[in-house]
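Appendix B. Chain record.
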Amino acid sequence: MKYAIKIKKMMVYGVLACAVALAISNVSLAQSRPSVELPEQCSQIQVPEANSLAYRVYGLGIQEYSWDATSSSWVAGGILANLYSDSNYQGQVGTHHGGPTWISNSGGLVTGEQEFECSPNANSLPWLRLRADEVDGVGMFSDTTYIQRLNTSGGNAPVNPGTYDGEPVSVAYAAEYLFYRAARIR
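Structure tokens predicted for this chain:
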């Protein structure tokens, strides 16, 4: 019986020690700014230091284009994408469409105003830094200050000309979106 009580006490102390360690690790993560690795040519899309990463989501969707026969070029239209919580595109957390606008499943939304772009991969959409223009509602996008679009794949306009004026084309793309908030001073 005495051993059973000792084992229970050890288990309680073990759980408490784990809880304290977890709390300490969360505090240190909240106080340190996670670094985002950017290629040197993309340094201008770094988010100002007074902001910290709040959410990282993964977009999978299409970039729309239409053929302009007058200028003999593809004109970018809107983006339509689903946003996921992990890089395997599981756990949909929201949507993204032209504007640009991101809407979370929890009801909040944020629109962005593009500030800078860079193109580390000529075969994919450029990487962007956007300033939050309008933030509405609660949820994951509340208090957003900046958005980055990184690690894009695909989405560029077709290389071949269109066959008629106004011809629509949808090009698949994937990207990583990072949402920042003003850093809280402790």
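Further analysis of this model is presented in Appendix C.
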